[in-house]
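Researcher: Re-running this chain for the archive, since the previous output was lost when a drive failed. Same request as before.
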Amino acid sequence: MTPEFITTLSRGAVEITLLLALPVLGIGMVVGLFISVFQSVTQIQEMTLTFVPKILAVLVGMLFFGPWMLSKMLTYTEGIIVNIPSYIR
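Model: Regenerated structure tokens:
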């Protein structure tokens, strides 16, 4: 194993992690932004108001994007497992 190989493998892992996290984190950020604007307009400063809608939105996002995320993870993992013999050389 060369340093270039380790760097490439690590880069792929980071890329797939960011790709899988992006939709869920994006949904959480957008919902959080809307809640912040709502709190600013109504001057309601309840801490629990921010958590429940974000948790529900992230859950719905995971249900919606779950199959796509699972297929990406399986494809990446399958590629690593299939190529183990070439990694050893």
